[in-house]
Amino acid sequence: MQQFANPARFLKIANAVLPFVWTVTVILFVIGLYGALVSSPADYQQGETVRIMFVHVPAAWMAMFVYSVMALASAVAIIFRHPLADVAAKTAAPIGAVFCFLALATGSLWGKPMWGAWWVWDARLTSMFVLMLLYLGYIAIWQAIEEPGRAAMIARIVALVGFINIPVIKFSVDWWNSLHQPASVFKMGGPSIDASMLWPLLVMGLAYTFLFLALHLVCMRSELAQRKLRTILIARGRAN
Amino acid sequence: MRPLLSLMRRDLTLATRQGGGAGTALGFFLAVLVLLPIGLGPDQFTLQRLAPGILWITLLLSVLLSADRIFQQDYEDGSLEIMAMSSQPLELVVLAKALSHWLSTSLPLAIAAPFLGVLLNLATEIIWPLLLAMVLGSVALSLIACVGASLTLNLRRGGLLISVLVLPLYVPVLVFGLSASTGSVELVTPSLLILSAIALASLVLAPLAAAAALRAYLK
User: Fold this and answer.
1) N or C: at which end does chain B have fewer Cβ atoms within 10 angstroms?
2) Is A137 part of the contact surface with chain B (CB cutoff 8 Å)?
3) Alpha helical stretches, state H, A116-194
4) Whether A158 contacts chain B with CB within 8 A
């Protein structure tokens, strides 16, 4: 782990790996989208709208996965003082927030024909909404604090406090939902999923993961460039 | 132990004397309580159904809005740095300050709220469950607000940011608090036990997080 601590070495590896990651992403998306939009059958209940699931479900997975990445990076930053961990956590947040938004938006598009409403206060939707708020709070902290070192320290705490709370919030929202309305009405997916739909879903999940990896590397690279620029500008300001 | 007790005594004295603003939270609570029936309509039956939810949400907001008082003044006049340099662990200092905030702001509100529920035609048999749930829940509310206050210690527009950070964390307290006070007329329900668990867990975890944040600001 520590041997990747040097930003210059990280950049070298990232630059070498990125074309490969982008290629895999594109290939996976082509296969996954073909499976999702062309080869898989329409659902007998949901009709063609079931295809929304192939972009919706992986987005929801990624929204949760990226927050875990963020929390893990923050923990690494606190424990090992790894210099790239803060960069990793900071740049993961906007990507995760977009995945989260994508999950909410596609869910809403699916909900209109299925439930007859753009938005329903279902347990999953509500906890996804709260996750979105956690992302926004984390991003806002980086925006609000000017001094980078202090912002990093505060952001780590925000990420970890959020991460500890996510299971509690999820549990409480499930509890709340079962209190207010029976779950049977909003049971998603119906019967367990058929293989012809399962493989495109899994491929799409993998495609999203590689997309995140590629975007994350690009964002980390530009964040490092931004920091270097900042240091140069400050040094030049001092010299004048 | 004695330095912490005297710190709590100091904070409580400051909160109750002139300019302390302990009563302002109650004023805010009443102001919201007037606005809601105006916004929702005066129908007695609707108000009775919504009353526990309204009281809980108003309690959350009142505690949240009074949170910036916990550290702000001490940070500005430098006494927070002296507390951080004292022989007491910063975690315990934070705990003492959070408990004084609970005693001076959240607890009075939690006790008053169920009785102010009369204004909303609150069903009389749930006054006691509501009171118990609010007293226990307000411990967690104060401690979580304390984390938010330490994270946004000297930020411009800190007031808005603290809401975005803290309100999502209030979701479990709201859910279990509401379910403990409306589910049944029994006093001890599973929800109340979970609510107590949340309060106890935040009693341990919140001072750790808040002290870490304060250290980043005091460096």
Assistant:
1) N
2) yes
3) 123-144, 148-180
4) yes
Which 3 state secondary structure label does DSSP give A43?
strand
A47 φ, ψ (degrees, to nearest 5): 65, -145
Does the pLDDT of residue A240 top 90, yes or no?
A: no
Amino acid found at B184: S
d(CA B91, CA B95): 6
Distance CA A175, CA A224 (A): 43
Coil, helix or strand for A45? coil
**A43 pairs with which residues across the strands?**
A47
Non-local CB neighbours of A192 within 8 Å, separated by 6+ positions: none
Residues 6+ apart with CB under 8 A from A221: A11, A14, A15
* ipTM > 0.90 for the complex: no
Distances from the Cα of A208 to the Cαs of A58, A61, A66, A149, in angstroms? 7, 9, 11, 32
Taking an 8 Å cut-off on Cβ atoms, the answer to whether B156 and A136 are in contact is no
What does the alpha-carbon distance between residue A42 and residue A48 come to, in Å, rounded to a whole number?
5
- Specify the length of chain A in residues: 240
- Residue found under tokens 């907001």: B61
**Cα distances (angstroms) measured from residue B128 to each of B33, B135, B182, B184:** 20, 11, 11, 11
B164 to chain A: which residues are within 8 Å by CB? 133, 136-137, 140
- B165 chain-A contacts, CB cut-off 8 A: 137, 140-141, 158
Quote the tokens at residue A228.
């270097």
Q: CA gyration radius for chain A?
A: 21
Question: Cβ distance B145 to B61 under 8 Å?
Answer: no
* Residue in the block written with tokens 């609010």: B134
Give per-residue pLDDT as tens, B19-78.
Answer: 666 678 888 999 998 998 899 888 888 888 889 999 999 999 999 988 888 888 888 888
CA of B100 to nearest chain A CA: how many angstroms apart? 23
